[in-house]
Amino acid sequence: MSLQCTEAELRAWLIKFYPDMQDWLARPLRSILDALLGDQTPLVFHCAAGKDRTGFCAAIILGLAGVDEATILADFALTDKAVDLYAFTRTHRAARMGLTDGEHPFEKMAPDVREALMRADPAYLKAALDSVAERHGSIAGYARTALGLDDAQIAAIRERLVEA
Question: Considering the entire predicted model, what is its pTM?
Answer without folding.
Answer: 0.84
